[in-house]
Amino acid sequence: MIQGVYIHIPFCHQICSYCDFNKFYFHNQPVDEYLTLLDREMEIWSRKTDLDEVHTIFLGGGTPTSLSLRQLSKLFDSIAKHFPMHQIKEFTSEANPDELTYDKMELMAARGVNRFSIGVQTFDAKLLKVLGRTHTNEHVERVLKHADQLKFPSISMDLMYGLPNQTMDQWNEALTRAFEMPITHISAYSLLVEPKTIFYNLLAKGKLSLPSQDLEAEMYEVLMRRTEEHGFEQYEISNFAKKGLYSEHNSIYWRNEEYLGLGAGAHGYVDGIRYSNHGPLKKYMQSLEGNQLPILHQNQVTPKEEMEEQMFLGLRMNQGVSFDTFRKRFEKELTDVYGVKMAPHIANGLLETTATGVRLTRKGRFVGNEIFQDFLLD
Asked: Looking at 239, 254, 269, which one is the last position of a domain?
């Protein structure tokens, strides 16, 4: 059953140096036509599938806040028309601090958004410039002031570490500034240099200086220690929340549950099928102009693949993978399927079993990706 809906808005007023998501520079793009055809995609899906269990919506990008007030209103009209808004518990929108005006926040709050994920990344002006970010610290402070005025229940802040030439002092300063602000959630990611990004091209030319792996690991250690000291509970490798205010939408992914992905380049998981939409606007829009879903690839997940996903997604969460959930879902014991794979990691102190399941240890979180690879069955 579909638990959540992801909606991709692929437009940006500025392209960041590290971003490899499907995005397009806003100027001269067919934004209104895109929103019209996004409505059509919603309509097709609402007719062909059951939405009775949907309880989260997430607007991502690109940058949803790149849209004008009129365009945002058009988008929310479509969402309200096709999805059961009365049962939506969490409605998140990603946002750039310099684009999230009071008027936009007021409109979005009135239309059901109750959580913002704000792309701050760093408070250091030089690093912001390197990243290609256009906001200032004053923009961040303004957004949080508006959020307080509108009584927003949850504000998440994105931070990044392992940035070009970033020092430990700069990372500690970023965390200090974040802890001083009235936020309820932090998502903190180490920089990954992905193909087809500005950083990738600079790295290939020898023009990008990155912190050592040891320094990056120290930054992660500092992140875990200081978030705990300031009342943030780590519930996933890169996510920390106050008062149990986890990202329910992202938890759908980590619990390996089904979700709808809408928009150019979006991914979804419906009826045991993982699919991805066309990324280029022209191909995405042409499909919908012909009243066809804009799906580029789809794959029926096999039981073997589903078990693998259950492990490497579930182990991202601090609670780990539940024995009981695994048994009910696959009619197999987790230890019967993966006991041999788990044993060396348990011996090395990277995994641990509890009364209810298996999870990464604190030590294991530093090498999570390497551990996940071992749960791909032969």
From this structure: 254
